[in-house]
């Protein structure tokens, strides 16, 4: 059964709403180039909606609007429902990290009159896609005196950009014989920072000049790279894609497109029977590990603290709250690309413009790493989508044995809660420029609103 194009159902007024919503999304995507920037922007938006930080509350009641952050890399927003938290929540969970290049701890060096920055790629990338494109530097430098310096270089139109060079075609006979995996090696993804030597400097004069600029503009020394977290990402804003402006091109749709739509769904939805939540996590692209990944105890601890502020606390209430929760793992799916149709099963693929995509399971090969949602649960969700006129489709990530992918669904499923993957089809996934349909962005938002308010 094939889903139909969502575009065909919109009248002029609905089409206007689709386009306006996507303007908000483009702004979020352009500002949220890293997980830290996403948290900043999400908190700003939540505050504009009247949400307050959890630590400001001495008790919680129905209708309270709450946000919580964790180490500047996680954020969760809640609207407290009429039912006790022990009855469960309605959760939309997305991740806000994306594939990129991370700066190493001892990164700056000079070679043949160029100052270069050594990097280590993060997440699954095709390395050759990251050369000869405009790049920006984002992050934080933490100094020994306890101060932190935010760094953004390459986004303001007056800023310089940086980049990674590639071999000219005229001399590429040997390079062109290499496989795509080897044509650009990981250790060759070094960013060019400059070529002008510092006057009167005898050794590594170009490097010295770059370090001088960093000191003058950002007030940090070379040794401060040791405690810095700097990320190299594509420079420039998200843009309309296609002559009909039906799509959005930008960096980080995976998974910030689901993060934004999930966030807005909770912010825009008034008090429901069950407490509603959008949780945005880090580290999905490398296994959801660590203190800020989905495997962290942070979310469970937040739920425990909220129960403590809402009712008499007990550990069994926390267990019940997690087990009774119903969740959409809001993560993107692989969009069907007519130029590479051979990797897909056309009957079980996600098509741009056909609405939100549900993946009953992800994983690879024999469903390795999959959550594999319960059919009873998906039946409930299908009913809600149909009753609210929301375009949806179902898909797998490519043909069996062709590849695959994973999400955070299985991690929350470990609490015995019902979880299914529900997201947006993306072309060029994990590339510096990804593509989504504006119709899918809006349909996902409507689907998330319906899920948290109707289920």
Describe this structure in words.
The chain is an alpha/beta fold and 455 residues long. Helix content is 27%, strand content 24%. It contains nine helices and 22 strands. The strands form five sheets. A nine-stranded mixed sheet has the order 1-2-3-13-4-14-20-16-18, with helices on both faces. A hairpin with a 5-residue loop joins strand 7 (135-142) and strand 8 (148-153). Helix 1 packs across helix 9 (438-454), helix 4 (253-268) packs across helix 9 (438-454) and helix 5 packs across helix 6. The model has no long low-confidence stretch (mean pLDDT 95).
Q: Summarize this, please?
A:
The protein is α/β, with parallel strands linked by helices. The chain has helices at residues 12-31, 35-48, 205-218, 253-268, 298-310, 315-324, 375-387, 409-413, 438-454, and strands spanning 52-53, 65-70, 74-79, 89-95, 100-111, 114-122, 135-142, 148-153, 191-194, 228-234, 239-241, 247-250, 275-281, 326-329, 333-334, 356-359, 363-364, 392-394, 404-405, 418-423, 425-426, 434-437.
Number of strands: 22
Q: End-to-end distance, in Å?
A: 24 Å
- What coarse outline follows from CA principal-axis ratios? globular
Number of helices: 9
Which strand order does the major sheet show?
1-2-3-13-4-14-20-16-18
**What portion of the residues fall into strands of 2 or more residues?**
15-25%
What helical percentage do the residues reach?
25-40%
- Largest pleated sheet: 9 strands, mixed
Rg from C-alpha positions? 23 Å
Mean pLDDT: 95
Oligomer type? single chain
Which parts are unreliable, with pLDDT below 50 for 5 consecutive residues or more? none
* Class by SSE composition: alpha/beta
